[in-house]
What we know:
With about 150 residues, this protein is α+β, with helices and mostly antiparallel strands. The protein has 5 helices and 6 strands; from the N terminus they run αβαββαββαβα.
Amino acid sequence: MADEQIKIDAELKEIQDVFVERGQSLDKKTKPLKKKDNIIDALKLVFDPEINVDVYNLGLIYGIDLQKNGDVNITMTLTSPTCPMADEIPVWVAESVASVAGVGKVVVHVVWQPAWDLSKMSEEAKFQLEIADFEMSNFGGPFNLY
């Protein structure tokens, strides 16, 4: 058991510093985006293919930092460090946000703390997964959908 935990800790350390960068800084003629609404809409187009819920409603997006120059920093997590789509989903997030008019360079940083759990999901996502009536008080920790 201890050997398994050491292996998991080593894997987490290896993937903890994952970040993806897409897009480029805006030229001086392009007006930078002022509101996050279009970014949120773009995030709702990125689905976890195994769960079939978008990353925003799934609660994987922890932060959206829209800079005055149009650059965007996104902090996100995944449902599990062993997520089979861990390499792809952050790329999809970066590419989707980079496609928004007025967005410059996009950096997506994947973090593992705080750990994702069901409480981070929107009511819409819970309804989609048919766990809308799930009583969170019966839930004791991070939930692994895999």
